[in-house]
Structure formats: C-alpha cells, structure tokens
Amino acid sequence: MTENRPGSAPATGLGGNPHPDLDLARIRRLIDELDAEISSAPADAAGVQDLKDEIATLRAVLDAPKKKSGWIADGLHSIRVELEQNTKVLRGEVVREGAFVAEIARILGL
User: Fold this and answer.
1) To 10 degrees, the CA torsion angle through 59, 54, 90, 48?
2) Which of 9, 25, 32, 89 has the greatest CB tally within 10 Å of its CB?
3) Which residues contact residue 26 at a Cβ distance below 8 angstroms, ignoring those fewer than 6 apart?
4) pLDDT for the residue 97
C-alpha cells in the first residue's frame, strides 16, 4: 500500500500504528457507497455536513501522491466516529450506517 523504498519503514500517520495492509480499493468503494447514501441528505441536518467533510478529507488523503497508511486509518476512524455519534440523525438518511461502521472496523482490524 505504501510506496516506500526497500528497507525503509512503512509510512504512518501522525497518531497511530502503521496499517500497511489497508486495501485502498476496498476503502474507496466504501466511501463511494457512503457518499452516495448521504448525497441526498439535507446539508443542514446535524452531523451530515461533518460526515461529508470527513469523506472529502479521506478522499484527499487517498488521492495524495504519497499514501500514508496512518492518515488513511485516522480518516476511516473519524468517519466511523461521525457515524456512531450521529446514528439517530443519520438513520433516516443513511439506511446502512451500521453496515458502514462494521466494514470500517473490519478494515481497521478492530
């Protein structure tokens, strides 16, 4: 997943352990699906804009020329926290919020 030279340490984010086995294609599919589910949600609904912002941030990290697995893991964790904190609000907008939380946990090995 990382683009390191042989013998170099894996790239990590600012606050976490390295996650060299992250499946970037799987993560992209997950955030694409989540983004599609919340695209019709009113932006003024509590938590929806925060979730959209976290998705946009994670996309930027995934699109960066140098992938940092810790940053990607941190982004997934932030999305998971937003989903969990706003479950009641999102229930009408994100039908499968529990499935997204479970998939993020699997990706992160939780």
Assistant:
1) -110
2) 89
3) 107
4) 66
The structural domain count of the chain equals: 1
Cβ-based burial of 74 (10 A; exposed 0-12, middle 13-18, buried ≥19): buried
Does residue 38 belong to any structural domain of this protein? yes
Domain residues for 102?
Answer: 31-108
Residue 16 placed within a domain: no
Asked if residue 73 lies in contact with residue 16, where contact means CB atoms within 8 angstroms, the answer is yes
For the residues 17-44, what does the mean pLDDT come to? Answer: 80
pTM of the model: 0.69
Whether the predicted pLDDT of 3 surpasses 50: no
